Amino acid sequence: MKSPDSGNRDDSPNTKEEEAEQDCSSPMVDLKVQISKDDESAQTEVEKGTLMKKSADNDSSDIIDEYMDISLFDVKCRRVPTISKMLRDRTIITEGYSIGIDQIPLQRERMTAHKGVHFTLMVAGQAGLGKTTFVNTFFGSSILPSVWNKKDHNSSQERTKSITCHTAQIEGYGTKLNLTIIDTPGFGNKLNNAFSWIPLTNFIDDQIRSYIFQEEQPDRIKLRDKRVHCCLYFIEPTNKGLSTLDVVTMKELSKRVNVIPIIAKADSLPKSHLTNFNREIRQIIDVQNIKICNFLNSNDPYYDDIFSNIPFNIIASENHVMNNRGELVLGREYKWAVIEVENPKHSDFSKLKDILINKYMADLVQSTEEYYENCRASLLKTRILKARDICFSSKPPLVDISDELKEFFKTLDYENCDNNGIKNYACYQLFNKKYIDELVLEWCQEYIHRQWEAKRRFNEIVNVEENKFQDWRKAILKRQEKFNNEINSIHKQIESLQIECHDLESRAISSRSGNEKSLGNLSAMVGKT
Fold first, then answer.
1. For the whole model, what pTM was predicted?
2. Partner of 348 for a Cys bridge, out of 244, 312, 315, 398, CB 3.0 to 4.6 A?
3. Which residues pair with 258 in a beta bridge?
4. Domain spanning 112-144+161-359: CATH 3.40.50.300
């Protein structure tokens, strides 16, 4: 509605205020328009819930109508002019005036330094390769306990075979590093190392799923984040290339985490042998298509420091020795020389430390976040599709579900799950962590292999018993045939005897009749006499 005195726009004292309100109001909130107290009719209409405005400008009235047509989640509506659009033609008041935008990165830096950086590192490899020594040397503190520091070396609890997490907070130059080290003792120590990598991959997957379900909780303040950002895989310096266990383990780990291979105890090989060993490992990695730092772009020159230096030759030591220059350094002392840990000529320790900490730690964390988002989307879609399987499958459902909920699931859009909106949470609630854990157990490679092994053994037993049964059947049939032949021969003997008996009877009858005739003739001759 227009007020009677709306002929001149500049004469209205509230026009500018009302226009500012129109431009600054968001389309997702109710538009409030100031109305003169003198206009009792307009006040009455406002009390009834009718939006009215006094203005002589037809454009202002059109904007009001446009706001009235906008709904809360209507993404198809035409967007109205915003403040950012109006400020494009702003006028600079003071040349060179700074509002402090350049301080925002520094604010971010201070926040990161105060809260700390979370980083989770997994060290994998066979026992005796110096993983504990390397970690303690790398971070300059005794994070991992050494079995050699224990008093009783014969104790049965010296070495644990389960994956263990060690946490530590390292602070330097005002920055905190919340570090988690995943130790993998007992890896590759079995006589049969088939599926030895399963505990490692299961741990990485479990941490991803755990974080997904933690984020679904209402209270997410106490989130426990143990997602693995990087895995250092220790290679034994045997000068014989990579073992089958190393190849398979790195291939499986590289699908889930950024893997960096390192040659442990590099000082145990001569320099020429070590060079050949490095070249052979790189060839095996290329041939077996092992993805090193799979979540980083290998084609980006920014990451050349990583991909051009693998594998890293590492020497670690927690002891200080005196070098040739009279300096006390970390290293190992031999009869022929002193090997320095941080000397680039002796070891790639400093290079790896520079790559892992100084340059690319944030990249490793960010790439893991991107991988996590892909896993999260995949898991959520899997839980939704399980609802579809319940509705449209003839197999009995694995979970208890009411008919009402089943009918509700039939109304969901399974082609484009995002169209369901909040309805998807019914699927998430039904297929919860307990169900997903059971489902993951069924999908486990080791579980599937054990099922296959059990079926194979069962089939072998069945085949053996079947062969025994066939042998018994053949023996029985053979004996039956023998008995039948004996019965047939006996029948033939009986038939021949019957024939002989019949002949004898015939002869006896004929001889008897002949004798009677002879006696009759004899008696006749005697009577004539």
1. 0.69
2. 312
3. 230
4. yes
